[in-house]
Amino acid sequence: MDNTSLSRRNFLKTTGAAGAFLSLGFYMPASAKQAKIVTAAEADQFGVELNAWIHIDQSGKVTIFNHRAEMGQGSYQAVPQIVAEELEVNLADANIVSAKGNKEKYGSQITGGSSTVRGSYKNLLKLSATAREMLIQAAAAKWSVDKATCYAEGGKVFHKPSGRQMHYGELVEAASKLEPPKDVVLKKRADYKLIGKPLKRMDTHLKTNGTAVFGIDKMLPGMLYAAVERNPRMLGKVKSFDDSAALKVPGVKKVVKIKRGVFTAYREGVAVVADSTWAAIQGKKALKVQWDDSGFEHLDTEEIYKRQAKALDTQEGLPFKKQGDVDGILSKASKKIEATYETPYQYHACMEPLNCVAHYQGDKLQIWGPVQAPEWLQEYLSKEMGLDKKNVEVNMTFLGGGFGRKALMDYPHEAAEISKAMKTPIQVVWTREDDATQGPYRPGITYRCEGVVKDGGIDALKVKLAGQNIGHASGAPKDKPNGSASEGFLKPYAESIKNLAIMDVPFETPIPVIWWRSVYASTNGFAYESFLDELAAEAGKDPLDFRRAHLKEERLQKLIDKIESVSGWKKRKKGEGFGVAITECFDSTVAQVVKVSKAATGGVKIDKVWAVMDCGWYVNPDTIEAQVEGSIVMGLGAATMHEVKFKDGIPVDNNFSTYQMPRITDIPPIEVHIMDNDENAGGVGEPGLPPFAPALTNAIFDLTGKRIRKLPFNLAAV
């Protein structure tokens, strides 16, 4: 997992020390419309650093660089699996290295929006095929044969007529001198040997034998450890602190006031630095800090939702989408369906709490840690620490979960500030309580839905939502609607529902908010798909047939056929509750059916969940199944177990004792199916979450006749 520097100079040094090699990457000239595939020598000629995705040395060793963070979603597997397919190498023999943060070299390295595969697979396929063709061309030249009579397989090039073979290491010197071909023929999906296959993940053994390096595992010579006391109301300032007791704790070295940037604001805290994490935490407990909490409101959860309801009552909101005569139809309708839905604030609850190692060295800053957005971090820290961006080095370790929280820059900034103050490498480790109570959180949102049904279909639909806009924290215009107001709502509905309005009612609180797995789709999906079920009931239509009638696209029709078939939707029996929901985000669509029944101990129990994902072109079905299963488990917790509550501006639930997570005994059987087609790749890590909550509550209505419009709720109390 050590990062390898592939600068021009290091390439030249490697050449001199270890002989020839073949490294291929992309170079994007300023005036070019698309990237040019180049070798190391060409990169040196252009005067640029090579973003080498593929490196092959004379021994035949193949190194594949993963440009995205691995936080459980499978980039450590998916990127090499793509490369190895067209490169024709054995995946088990390849060395996989996490690339350092460098946007100029690798393009976007932000691990979010389920974008790793869908954002890079076409370029990676072409790059890998180019390397393969160059090696074949080099072999054909050595043998003085027609290139068409040669082929690559298993890290070797073969000559069909004679049976001669050479491994890649024997060809790299000659191949490195060739000009990369401009056009290569990619394999047809039917010819794939690796892509589309449920290969075992290559990081599993690292994570089970203890060799995987997570942020919390990183150690540097002379490193000290820090724990930080932060204001429980988050926005408060340090008025004063007494460190006398903390300094008496064995191992404690120093206590310093520090800051960290959270979007455009700064948060203050008091850091205790010691020779061990344990000593730092004990010193932190001994601190006495007085906070200045003036200048902002200290809200309770109940007050937040009262204000959201009032805002929906008194404000029309900013139009995200408006077509037809929605208001006219709603005002004149003899019968109008209305419903209000509430979704809670949520904590990310990563198994690995926030942590970071920083080494500030005057003109240089090095970062090691669980980082989702290295390019954002480089940009931010260069400004905050007064450094050239090239001198901010970001090293991505494995992440024990991220879900959007680890794309923020605050915790590395905090570590960098402490390292600067102490003039030594520092590791900051957040306790579970720190992690749970400092946010930022998924915003809680209230939705007001109105609709009119006519001739068995939707004549008019209006949705107003009041909740915090994540974009406002980073400076997005407040006179513009939330750009994610319809996230989760299938785009084809806008074609079949001629009278449609989606309105964003601006809403602010001092509580910091940020992305959470599937972002706004995780809350929007509950409101939109729950209300569609209510409209279907009003129309007297089967809920799945009702959706089918409004989703005309052939691709969606096939998805509906699949979920109907695998779930046995048309064979439902008395005493069984079935609910369906279909949502879309990050270019993937997921349909889920949940089956419930009455529990012997009271309430309802979940009997089974069926999920069908259409993510277009995909890499590893086993990874997809795991991600959908994980999304459903996370959705189950958010729908029925946990929420972030506030009292006097302070988060109430500070650990898993009160913010309870689903246990293995809570998880129903989950059956995942993947649609096969030739469409462009969509996301996988997040789209499986949004449909679960509405499918569950729709199933409960089917069983009991009771509508659940507020999350979370207790299954045992239904």
User: What is the beta-strand fraction?
Assistant: 15-25%
- Helix/strand-derived category reads alpha+beta
Q: Would you identify the regions where 5 or more consecutive residues have pLDDT less than 50?
A: 1-18
Residue-averaged pLDDT: 93
Pfam families: MoCoBD_1, MoCoBD_2, TAT_signal
Keywords: Signal
Signal peptide: 1-32
InterPro entries: Ald_Oxase/Xan_DH_a/b, AldOxase/xan_DH_MoCoBD1, AldOxase/xan_DH_MoCoBD2, AldOxase/xan_DH_Mopterin-bd_sf, N-heterocyclic_Hydroxylase, OxRdtase_Mopterin-bd_su_IorB, TAT_signal, TAT_signal_bac_arc
Write a brief structural summary.
By secondary structure, this protein is an alpha+beta fold. Helix content is 30%, strand content 24%.
Could you explain the architecture of this structure?
- This protein has 718 residues and is an alpha+beta fold.
- It folds into three domains: 8-209, Aldehyde Oxidoreductase, domain 4; 217-295 and 354-429, Aldehyde Oxidoreductase, domain 4 (2-Layer Sandwich), CATH 3.30.365; 315-345 and 441-717, Aldehyde Oxidoreductase, domain 4.
- It is built from 21 helices and 28 strands.
- Strands 11-12-9-19-16-17-18 form a seven-stranded mixed sheet, with helices on both faces. A five-stranded mixed sheet has the order 2-1-3-4-5.
- Helix 3 runs parallel beside helix 5 and helix 17 (521-539) packs parallel to helix 21 (692-704).
- The longest helix has 23 residues, at 121-143.
- The protein is globular and about 85 Å long.
- 50% of the residues are buried.
